[in-house]
Amino acid sequence: MAIQFKMVAKTNSLATPPETNFYPCAVHQGEETLETLANRISISTSLTEADCFGVMYALTNAIGDALANGKIVRIDSLGTFQLTIQGLPAPEAEVRGKSYIKGNRVVFKPTKRLKSYLKRVNYIRIK
Question: Hey, which end of the chain has fewer CB within 10 Å, N or C?
Answer without folding.
Answer: C
